[in-house]
Amino acid sequence: MLSLISHAQSAVTFTYFPPVDFECNNGVTTPGYSVYVVGNLPEIGSWDVTKAVKLTPSAYPTWTGQTKFTLLTEKTSVEWKCIIRSETNPSDVKQWQAGANNQVTTAWSPTPKSIGTF
Question: Which class for 96: exposed (0-12), middle (13-18), buried (19 or more C-beta within 10 A)?
Fold first, then answer.
């Protein structure tokens, strides 16, 4: 949240939802499965795969999407992973991205981009 004082000395408050662009590479899926982002904050599921955010195939097998975060300030750390999950049974996860969590830090501008790979 950003507060400013106008010329009339009254406070003006703006709410900003910092976005992050996510990309998952090598997301090879079968019919009925898609690539999702799941991570440490509520907007990306709080590590609950049933609340993960579905990405869109941009240049298959690359999947992309953007999430806007609330209740964050600039320079908030986001941890996340790519998963391949059933579109109809949210608890059916076929694959998790291996290795350490991906990390990205929110910023006012430009929009940060974070890339994960299966």
Answer: middle
pLDDT digits (tens, 9 = 90+) for 68-99: 998 666 688 999 999 999 999 999 999 999 99
Asked if 92 contacts 113 with a C-beta cutoff of 8 angstroms, the reply is no
Ordered structural domains, the chain, with CATH:
17-117 (2.60.40.10)
Do 38 and 81 touch, CB atoms closer than 8 A?
yes
Dump pLDDT digits (tens) for 95-116: 999 999 999 998 878 999 999 9
67: Cβ contacts below 8 Å, ≥ 6 apart: 19, 20, 22, 37, 43, 44, 53
